[in-house]
Each structure stands twice: as C-alpha cells, then as structure tokens.
C-alpha cells in the first residue's frame, strides 16, 4: 500500500505541530499552482543532468556528502508499509547503504496500522532496528510506549543541514528528535488522462465550481469523471482534508486536527456536504460507491490511464506518489498523464502534505548510521532519480527528479518552506486516523456508501474521535 504516504507532515495534536505548520497554506498553494501551470513537457523534455531548481534546491546531490562508519558483519532490519515499486526503489537505497558500510539490511514488509505490527514484533522480542512511520501520531505513540530512541548527533546534523525547521519539528516529541522525514507527499493533486480531457474539450479547473463543470464535461463525453480508491480509507480522508482546509481555513483545520472542536461542528457539515456533490453522483465515480469501495488505491490510478481514450475514469485524486502507479501503465507523466492542484473550495487552494519518518527502535551504531544516511541528500537523491518519490530534503538537486512534473512538484514543496498543513488523519491517534475498518477511515467509507447522511456521519466521527483522543491511542 502506498500512503504518505496517505502515502498524503504533521505532529500528534500538540502545540508544536501548530507552530511547525503555522503559516497559511495559501502561499504554498500559489507556488504549486504557478509551478504546475508551467509544466507541459514530456518525461524527456529536459536532461537529467540539468538543474532547473532556480535556487529552490541546493547541494550537489552527487558523490558522497555524508560520512558513514564501517559496519562489516552487522545486520539491520527496516520495516515499512511500502509495496510494489515504492518498496523496490527503497531497497536500492538500502543497497547503497550496504555498499558504503558493509552492513546487511533486510526490508521487512509491515501491515497497516504499523504501530500494531510493531507492537506484535516487540512483544515477540523481534523488533526491527528502524521503522518508517507514516503518521506523527504513530511517532508519539512509539515514544510514549518506550519503543522509539532519540536520534544521535550525526543524524541531527544531517537534519539541520538539509531540512527546514518545520520538517525537523514534526519529527520531535517533547523537544527531542525521534524522526527523520525521509519521504514527503504533496496530497493536493488531481491527475488526469490527457486524451480524455482533449476529446471532451475539458480544461484544468481552478475552483471547486470549475471542477464540477469539468466533471460534467468529461461525463458528457462518455467517460466517468472520477476514480476513487475507496477500499483504502486513507484516500477518503485526503478528499475531506483538502476540502476542509480550503473551505474552513488553516485555523479551523488545526483545531479539528487536535480535536479542539468537535466533528459535529458546522464547518464539518459544510465540508461533507461539499464532498457529497461528487460522491452522491454514482455516475461520477467509477463503479459507483460499491465499486469504489472495492478499489484499492493502486488500481484507482492505473484504471485511469489504461484503456486508451476510454478508461474507467478520466481523473484520480491523490498525491505525487501516484506516479509510481502511473509508471506501471504505458502512460507517460507530463504527456499522457497530467496534473493540476486541488481546486480552491474557499478563498485559496489547499496544500496538504504527508510523509514517512525513519524512527530507531533498536539503538545501535548501525541503526543510527542508517537514519543518518536517510537524512542525507545522498539517499534521497538515489530514490528521487527512480521516480514516484518526493523528498523534503532541500539539498536534493531538482534535476534528480526524472520528469518535469515531478521537478515542479518538488520545487514547490521546497519553496514553500514551512507553509503547509500536515495530513489531518495522520496527526490523530492511530485508532481514529490510521486503522483500516475503524474510526475516520471506516466512517468516511460509510459516507461514500451513503453521502446523504451528513449528520449521521458527523455523529459517528465525533464518537470515534472522542474515544480515540480520550485514550490517546
């Protein structure tokens, strides 16, 4: 599964998270919109050796920028929920670590929620050395349970060198650095089949009203407008968060993320009602609600870009990491598969981010070295070149990204600095915001099934949130 990962950068309902993401999302949204508007070229329109960062990214990105110890004969296990191309590409990064240090690294596929997976491993006396945690809430839980170990001075030095303060802060708990955000996600993107739009005469929308008009235009051309990966509840939370952030604003977003306002608040009603403008039209969603609830995220992407000019849907909403799945089809990003920022529902377009942080569970010289490597520009540059990956590391050269669309998304992320909001469900206790079949994931799946029940959905969300926040789990 890829989640950024809801893959979709935030902390667990603490005041620190608000400070880390305090600036308005509008600034980053504007930068993203301008950047994506400039992308129209194909995958090969710029050579990989050309740096078009325009100063947004720095560093050399080549050679060795981090010193690692010799670890011959040592072994490490790294756990993450990544599958498919994402896992394959990360293993190449781990292989480079082995080449430089001599340590053997084994990737351990984890199940979501990863905290439960880690709990069973720890109970059995076999925890992995390092885990990639997709929620700041999970980092806090790992710290509260005594599992996570603070990062050493070498890893912290790489973070200070390569990351903005906001990205450093969201890996902290109680003022100590426990997480290094290796992977980021821009979760405010809608990908579309260029041929479908061309045949329909559809244009990229700027506002929610425009999006509804574009959807109707695509529908009138004989193609279902949207593909929704409803089997993975995190995709549905991302839909809600983008609408809520744009419509209710950053302050309300922070309050709801920390459960300082209830899910029965009128602002939630407004966002769900807006979301129902798409979800309530069964002909707007591929397979209707029933089909969407049986569609996992990777399929929601691939079915948008297969089938020639008659795919199962013309658009799919999700983060930059959708490129990994687009790459499994014959579609080329920038030509066959294009992208636009999530349209403004309120006064400005939203920018919702997500990410995966490396956390040490077994403190050792080798584990500290691995996280130091993952916090360096060396590791991130390797995976950037492989595609379908976005790094918050400001010293990854923009030219490392393999296509113009990805380069612009990366440039906008770095240029935005700390002006983002982290995925709301990832800030919540895992029982509410990160568990399949429970909490927000389940409640929004039920809402997709019955989008007319706004009040009932609010009541269920509030009941589940109150229980989870009250227990802290």
Could you describe the 3D structure shown?
Keywords: Signal, Transport. Pfam families: SBP_bac_1 (PF01547). This is Sugar ABC transporter substrate-binding protein. The structure is a single chain. This protein is of the alpha/beta class. It folds into two domains: 241 residues, D-Maltodextrin-Binding Protein, domain 2 (3-Layer(aba) Sandwich), CATH 3.40.190.10; 153 residues, Periplasmic binding protein-like II (D-Maltodextrin-Binding Protein, domain 2), CATH 3.40.190.10. Helices cover 45% and strands 11% of the residues. It contains 22 helices and twelve strands. The strands form three sheets. Strands 1, 2, 3, 6, 11 and 12 form a six-stranded mixed sheet that branches. A four-stranded mixed sheet has the order 8-9-7-10. Strands 4-5 form a two-stranded antiparallel ribbon. Helix 10 packs across helix 11. The N terminus is likely disordered.
- According to CATH, what is the topology of the largest domain? D-Maltodextrin-Binding Protein, domain 2
In the predicted model, the low-confidence regions spanning at least 5 consecutive residues are 1-28, 40-62
Helix content: 40-55%
In CATH, the homologous superfamily of the largest domain goes by the name: Periplasmic binding protein-like II
- Write down the CATH class of the largest domain: Alpha Beta
Q: Look at the helices and sheets and give the structural class.
A: alpha/beta
Shape: globular
Question: How many individual β-strands?
Answer: 12
Q: Give the total of domains.
A: 2
- Beta-strand share of residues: 5-15%
Characterize the largest beta sheet: strand count, sense, and whether it forms a barrel. 6 strands, mixed
| Total helical elements | 22
- Rg, Cα atoms, Å: 21 Å
CATH architecture of the largest domain: 3-Layer(aba) Sandwich
Question: How far is the N terminus from the C terminus?
Answer: 22 Å
Oligomer: single chain
Give the integer mean of the pLDDT values.
87
Biased composition (Gly residues): 55-64
Signal peptide: 1-40
Protein name: Sugar ABC transporter substrate-binding protein
Keywords: Signal, Transport
């Amino acid at each position: 599964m890829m989640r950024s990962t809801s893959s979709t950068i935030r902390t667990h309902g603490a005041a620190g998270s608000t400070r880390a993401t305090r600036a308005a999302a509008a600034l980053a949204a504007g930068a993203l919109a301008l950047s994506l508007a400039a992308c129209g070229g194909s995958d090969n329109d710029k050579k990989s050796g050309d740096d078009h960062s325009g100063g947004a990214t720095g560093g050399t990105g080549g050679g060795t920028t981090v010193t690692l110890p010799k670890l011959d004969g040592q072994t490490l296990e790294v756990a993450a929920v990544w599958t498919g191309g994402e896992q394959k590409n990360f293993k190449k990064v781990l292989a480079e670590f082995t080449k430089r240090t001599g340590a053997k690294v084994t990737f351990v596929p984890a199940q979501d929620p990863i905290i439960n997976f880690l709990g069973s491993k720890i109970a059995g006396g076999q925890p992995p050395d390092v885990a990639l945690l997709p929620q700041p809430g999970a980092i806090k839980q790992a710290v509260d349970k005594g599992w996570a170990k603070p990062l050493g001075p070498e890893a912290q030095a790489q973070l200070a060198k390569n990351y903005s303060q906001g990205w450093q802060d969201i890996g902290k708990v109680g003022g100590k650095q426990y997480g290094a955000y290796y992977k980021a996600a821009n979760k405010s993107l809608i990908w579309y089949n260029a041929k479908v739009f061309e045949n329909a005469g559809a244009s990229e929308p700027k506002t929610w009203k425009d999006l509804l008009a574009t959807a109707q235009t695509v529908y009138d051309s004989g193609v279902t407008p949207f593909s929704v990966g409803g089997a993975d509840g995190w995709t549905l939370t991302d839909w809600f968060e983008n609408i809520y952030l744009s419509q209710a604003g950053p302050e309300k977003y922070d309050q709801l993320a920390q459960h300082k306002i209830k899910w029965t608040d009128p602002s939630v009603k407004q966002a769900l009602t807006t979301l129902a403008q798409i979800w309530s039209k069964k002909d707007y969603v591929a397979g209707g609600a029933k089909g969407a609830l049986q569609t996992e995220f990777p399929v929601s992407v691939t079915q948008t870009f297969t089938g020639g000019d008659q795919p199962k849907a013309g658009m799919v909403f999700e983060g930059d990491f959708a490129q990994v799945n687009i790459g499994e089809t014959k579609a080329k990003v920038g030509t066959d598969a294009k992208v636009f920022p999530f349209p403004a529902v309120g006064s400005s377009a939203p920018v919702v981010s997500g990410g995966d942080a490396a956390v040490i569970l077994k403190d050792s010289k080798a584990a500290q070295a691995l996280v130091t490597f993952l916090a360096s520009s060396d590791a991130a540059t390797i995976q950037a070149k492989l595609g379908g990956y976005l790094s918050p590391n400001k010293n990854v050269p923009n030219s490392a990204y393999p296509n113009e669309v990805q380069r612009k998304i990366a440039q906008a992320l770095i240029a935005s600095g700390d002006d983002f909001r982290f995925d709301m469900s990832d800030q919540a206790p895992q029982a509410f915001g990160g568990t399949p079949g429970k909490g927000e994931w389940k409640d929004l799946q039920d809402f997709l099934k019955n989008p007319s029940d706004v009040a009932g959905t609010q009541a269920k969300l509030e009941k589940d949130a109150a229980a989870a926040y009250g227990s802290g789990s």
